[in-house]
Structure formats: C-alpha cells, structure tokens
Amino acid sequence: MTAFFEGIQYLFVNILFAPLDFLRRLELITWFGANTINWIFMIICSAAIVYWIKQLRIFDAAGTENQDTTAHSFLK
Q1: CA angle at residue 34 from 13 to 20, to 5 degrees?
Q2: FRET partner for 65 with CA separation of 20 to 30 A, picked from 9, 15, 46, 57?
Q3: Transmembrane region positions (predicted)?
Q4: Cα 58 from Cα 56, distance rounded (Å)
Q5: What contacts 33, CB < 8 A, 6 or more positions away?
Q6: Where are the extended beta strands (E) located within 1-76?
C-alpha cells in the first residue's frame, strides 16, 4: 500500500508539477517570462469580452433583444 501512495507522490511531484517548477526557476531570471501564461490568459479574456460586447451591440441594433421584464416565467 505504501508503494501505491509513493507512486501517486512521484506522479504529482516529479511529472505533473514539473512545468510549475520550471516557471518558479524562470521567475528568478525574468519576471515577464514567468508570467507569460498570465499574459496569454489576459489577452484571451480581453478578446472574449470585446467579442461579447460587439455581439450585444449587433443584437441591440437589430432590435431582436427581448428586454421585457416578464421574458422569463420566474420573473412574474
């Protein structure tokens, strides 16, 4: 049973956390390099928000948006 838990430990510590260890060592060299993943996520989220607002404006200009407060049965 001990070998099973040591196998789980080896999987997580030596294999699955290896990219995080790399980022931790990279942070000592360059802060921007270590935070590349954060920058990528911020760019993706910004693009998604811009796309969402653009779609909202398209539906608002077309007049297809149902803005009645009783549009849903639970609001009656």
Answers
A1: 10
A2: 46
A3: 28-53
A4: 5
A5: 26, 27
A6: none
Indicate yes or no: pTM above 0.70. no
26 and 33 in contact (C-beta within 8 Å)?
yes
Using CA atoms, how far residue 73 sits from 30, 54, 62, 66, 68, in Å, is 55, 28, 24, 13, 11
Please, what are the averages of pLDDT over each run of 10 residues along the chain (76 residues)? 95 93 90 89 98 93 74 64
Cα separation, 13 vs 22, in Å, equals: 12
Answer for the pair 26, 34: CB distance below 8 angstroms, yes or no: yes
